[in-house]
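Dear colleague,

Thank you for sharing your sequence with our group. We've completed the structure prediction you requested, and as agreed, I am returning the results in plain text so they can be pasted directly into your records. Please verify that the sequence below matches your submission; if there's any discrepancy, let me know and we will rerun it promptly.
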Amino acid sequence: MTKILTIVARIEAKNGNAEFVKEAMLKLLEPTRKEAGCIQYDLHQDNENQNVFVFHEQWESEAHLQDHLNTAHIAEYVKTVDGVIDSFVLNRMTKL
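Please find the predicted structure tokens below.
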């Protein structure tokens, strides 16, 4: 049985840029959810620190994740938020 790859990506916007970053990330939801291998792709915003966002994702495989990371919409997102992100941490996880 193939194990599902879970991704937890934590993004922190620089102060004053939370709404800009949020809008850029919201644009990723629809096209990503249509990608082959995407099981789940949800965006969350911290209730106390509006600069902190988390994507909770599930992919059929590492190959599907890599295909996602190489899409035009991810490239556009990276270009759009260049200079307004304080930190980005991506964790690849497996359900136990």
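Summary note from our side: The radius of gyration is 13 Å.

Kind regards,
the structure core
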